[in-house]
Amino acid sequence: MAQVQQRRPASNGAASGAPPPREPPGFVARLVVTIRRRRKIVRRVGLAASALIILISLTIFARTLMRIDPGKFGAAFAATSRDQILMSFAFTATSYLALTGYDGLALRHLNVRVPYWLTALASFASYAVSFTLGFPLVTGGAVRYWVYSPAGLTAGNIAGLTVVAGVTFWLGMGLIVGVGFIFTSDAVAEINHFNALANQLIGLSAIGLLVLYLAWVGLLRWRGAPAIGNFRLPGPFLTLGQMALGVIDVCSASAALYVLLPKDAMIGFPTFATLYSFAAMLGIASHSPGGLGVFEATILQAVGGDVDALLAALLLFRAIYYIAPFICAMALLGAVEAARRWRSIREAMAAASED
């Protein structure tokens, strides 16, 4: 039997138990180069799309500014009542309160326990800074790391928290856009000039994607911990909680602008919330800090009416929803840093006195 095996052709590696022939090293190198090229192409396409969105939006915004009457613009500011401003602040507070739930759900998902005041501080400060400066993964992540790291959270925990919070935001906006396009298709058609049936199909597509996502994470949860690589996704029940929080946040933020609109703006709140979500998506896609220019151009183009009064409402909204929280966040972060330094000084003085 051994002699028969010796007479077999040496090239028959599979029969002799030898390992199958491997791909040449050049194949792996070519594959890596191809993947890198495709990533570069996708990145360049994304940058080109962002630049195009910014260019179109700034063109529309510039043309609108050229039609502004300074007298009417000032009168629109003066016509804004105190009740409108107070309601806008109240809805802004509700929105940021819902944002603290983003971090709360993410920390629960990661099985990390921290005091709620720390969660509220990290969430409020990170969103206030990232909304104003843009690049949320960098600015928001840096603020979260500065706040959470003394509590023992690792960089991996904070990265996972940031991803889960970002998914919560997109789930809420996707649900609002889907429902809005389905149930207010006629009103949306007057804005985007699509057929009402086409708007309903867009809405059904958005809802369908959300249902597929729920089914996917549910299936992965049934098979084991749903994960992408080393990152574990929230299960279906926690995802439903994310959607609810996202809807509360986006509806409150859109209401903060809605109450500032001029009285002649003939648009219902469900339609406006859908429009707000779409404008926010464009602002995020443009990578413009806070969607500046892109968000305003979309609202101005869609709502219509008195341009001077509408622009005054948008500027007031910027001051209330972006600038005021940013100033408060910087003050809070400064106070926390001062408290930390004072605590370090006291501990050093106590250690020196013991020596």
Task: Please tell me about this protein's structure.
α4 crosses α14, α5 packs across α8 and α8 (155-183) packs antiparallel against α10. This protein is an all-alpha fold. It is globular and about 75 Å long. The protein has one domain (43-337). It has helices at residues 2-7, 13-16, 25-66, 70-79, 82-109, 116-133, 136-148, 155-183, 185-192, 196-223, 236-258, 269-286, 294-303, 307-354, and strands at residues 227-228, 231-232.
Layout of helices and strands, plus pairs?
Blueprint: H1 2-7, H2 13-16, H3 25-66, H4 70-79, H5 82-109, H6 116-133, H7 136-148, H8 155-183, H9 185-192, H10 196-223, E1 227-228, E2 231-232, H11 236-258, H12 269-286, H13 294-303, H14 307-354
Antiparallel strand pairs: 1-2
Helix pairs in contact: 3-13, 4-14, 5-6, 5-8, 5-11, 5-14, 6-7, 6-14, 7-8, 8-10, 8-11, 8-12, 9-10, 11-12, 12-13
Q: What is the gyration radius calculated from CA atoms? A: 27 Å
Distance between the termini: 84 Å
What's the average pLDDT? 79
Order of helix and strand elements from N to C terminus = HHHHHHHHHHEEHHHH
Which percent range fits the helix content? over 70%
Strand content: under 5%
Strand count, sense and barrel status of the largest sheet are: 2 strands, antiparallel
Shape: globular
Number of helices: 14
**Could you say how many structural domains there are in total?**
1
**Strand line-up in the sheet with most strands:** 1-2
SS class: mainly alpha
Please tally the β strands and state the result: 2
Region (Disordered): 1-23
Protein name: Lysylphosphatidylglycerol synthase-like protein
Transmembrane segments: 45-65, 85-102, 114-138, 158-184, 196-217, 237-260, 267-289, 309-336
Organism: Roseiarcus fermentans
